[in-house]
Amino acid sequence: MALLRRLLEPFRRRMRGWMRKRQGDDPDPVVLTGRRIYILPTALGTGFAGMLLLMMIGAMNYANNLALGLAFLLGSLGLVAMHHCHRTLAGLKLALATTHPVFAGQRARFAIALVNDSQQPRPELELTDDSLTTEPVRLDAATREPTRAVVEIGHPAERRGKVRLDRFEVSTRHPFGLFRAWAVLHMDLECIVYPRPSDRALSPPPHETDVGGAQDGPRGDEEYAGLRPFHSGDSPRRIAWKAYARGQGLQTKQFAGTTVISHVFDWDSLEGLGVEARLSQLCRWILDAHAAERAYGLKLPGVNVPPNVGDAHRQHCLTALALFPG
Amino acid sequence: MNAFLRQLDDPTQRLLWVVTALALSLLPHVANVPIWIVLFAAVTAAWRIAAQVRGWKLPPKWLRIVVVVLAVVSVLAGYRTLNGLEAGTALLVLMAASKLLETRDRRDLTVLLFISFVLLFAALLYEQGLMQLPYMLVAVWLLTATLMRVHQTTSRMPMREAMRMTAKMLLLSLPVAVAFFLLFPRLPGQFWALPARAGATSGINDEISPGDVSELSLSSGIAFRVTFTGSPPPPAERYWRGVVLHDFDGRTWRRPRGRFSTTPTVEPSGQEYDYRVTLEPNNRNWLFSLDLPTRWPTTRAFQSYDFQLLSAETISSPTSYRVRSHTQYTMTSELPMMQRNMDTALPGERNPRTRELARTLRAEHPDAVEFVQAVLQKFRNEEYFYTLEPPRLEADSVDDFLFNTRRGFCEHFASAFTALMRAGGVPARIVAGYQGGQYNPMGDYLIVRQSDAHAWSEVWIEGRGWVRVDPTAAVAPERIEQGLDAAVPEDEPVPGRMFGGNRMVLNLQLAWDALNSAWQNNVVEYDDTLQRSLFSTLGFDDVDWRSLGLLLTASLAAFFVALSAWLAWRFKPRMQDPAAQAYAQLCRKLGSGNLPRRPHEGPVDYLTRVGVARPELRADLDELRALYVSLRYGPLPMSAQLSRFRFLVNRLKL
Fold first, then answer.
1. Which of B48, B76, B158, B306 lies in disulfide reach of B244, CB 3.0 to 4.6 Å?
2. CA distance A5 to chain B (A)
3. pLDDT > 70? residue A207
């Protein structure tokens, strides 16, 4: 089996190239037309056909018309099943829902929405990328609104950078498992893969500075020191919500005497490590700092992110690590 | 029950349905395979279900292999072959049972369902009656529904829904199945020889011993049906020739072992009868025909020296054949000496009084014809009675019958008459077959039943050849003219007499038989001849396999188109609201004019952009835009706006 697959591999690759050229890139959302749905009998379907052939030969030999009729009935049932199988996909709408960035070693997840606006249910829909097939889902018949299901395709992400899902298949074996209809989609989905965070955090954390964009101005020991206008990156905990409720706009509370340390995680501080090891380490620091809600910045060759806090900042920094050339 | 089913988990439910399907397809075979195989299958099924519910482990691989080997060996021991229908069926049942032991996933369950289909197929090879048809259809339906149920993973599809969906699919597939049935080229003959099927013989016997316990068949089962091309012969001429008996040991009449090659030359006269006989299986090779057959299908049958039609194969399934007969005939050739000796032989020491009587009568009537008349006169004038419940006879059965009991049915009279003839030196023999037949006006054919079984004599008259003489007619002419019911005394049981008076029951019986006969003749026996005549009535003369293939392809293509259209209609999207539809039409129109909407554009942006690109349409597009916004977001949309929108869309010239 494995050998057969190896022998067929060049053929498969050419087939894929041909499909891509034939269909072009798919828009988002895409509606499956009948012309791009392929269908072949499954192993069970081939067995079924073989059984019918034997039945036919047997019935003809015994000159038994009823047995022949049974073979014909089952055969045409198979043909009807083939049409049903094809129809289960035709007219299905697919849209990209979201992609979630992941860390190297995890699985990149592409969430894809399947939408049914027809008056018939579409059971047993599966998504397949090269390696894995999702659990089948069923879309009920649309009533007023189209029915929708979101399915995540996992794709192994071994290395940082971007994982591209050039192609995936949506398929079904409904109704009897005798045929498999599938369509190949080229939606060019990308997922950012962050470096794998290093297991141990090197200490001491490098380069402490109290100069940063997040907390400027006078600070003190837990002592309220007044309000200043909100800048992006300020911790939501420090926003004066009461003042906001009074209609004074967003204000940030200032405290005197707080020792606020903001870190700038610097590429150059990790002298002596390889590129990936440095990125892993930086990734670990960023995660720890984010978890502790401390402000941090990032310095890479050619990249300089000033200290800040928040999810968007974290994503920004991690993306910079992910896409770091080298 | 339903609640109980629902609380079981999905694999258990699936297994239960598959076992049900298997049982359904096994049921028709209970009589065909040894009982231990049925029990084995039942026990395996029960164990497998228990294992599923209780979570027992399935047997290890070596045990399963041992079971399969044992099964094959026991079938070999029982049937001495693995080939043939019986052994094949037994093997299939055993395979299904052992497959059940290792059923884990969906694939195994599917294989079991495939085996069930093959079992149903095998049941049809045994029996093609109209009675079986509803059962078969229901079984196929349940099997396909189970197949669908097994292949549903996303939600636990209730069996009712699967049944509903497969019913629709089966109905959809019916037209093409019927087209295939009618159009598929039928080949005369077989690919390989079929092993003969063992089975109990039915109908008349190849030996007659009057005076034993009455063995006359009282069954109203059908022996055969006859469709005449013209009108059927009158009842008194409906003698259906079966087997001819020559050897007599004083009590029992048998067929001789030897074969005689010379058949007398027959010169038929009078009306000829062309007809088609559809014979029910009797597990012998006798083909019944109206006395005397003059033309028969020579490829499948031959005629013996005493005018029996014999088939080349045992009749183990309903068979039909065409014959031409003449009821008037003479024979010009001489009777060969060997035959004359055989047909005048009597065991010397048996039935002395009979021989004495024959000698006396023969002395009075030296002419053979007068001698025959004298014997028949004796039967007619003296006290002989026709009854289906005659007393037992002594060892010298002819003496006992002629001089003591004087009661009997056709066999007794034929036996006594033939013995008297031989004793008087006239060659005589007994012919066993059927006499009469019920005319069914609903299908225009004759039904000949087992209860029409009859025996009569043939005597050799110089210059005329073999002449049929029916001594029963002398005693009970109504038996010949009107059938058994009229001849038998009131207090004796006769098949069908119970309902004799009820006209409606009789008509129902006849209608059911006509239906069966039509089924048998047009469906079960549908062959290349029928196919050709069907298509010539449709205007396709002389169809060959090429034109049939063409017709098949055409009907298949038509079916595919129709099916695709129907499915597309079923799967069509929910109706959008009128404004959205009108807007979609506008988009299509603009799109075909090379100004397609970009995926991110809303109506306002899009129509503005088109307006810039095509200034001459600008006024209309602006109005369309305003109308659309108003239809979508305005207070109650007005139909006037909608029709204006549609009007503008239609007016748009690109």
1. B306
2. 22
3. no
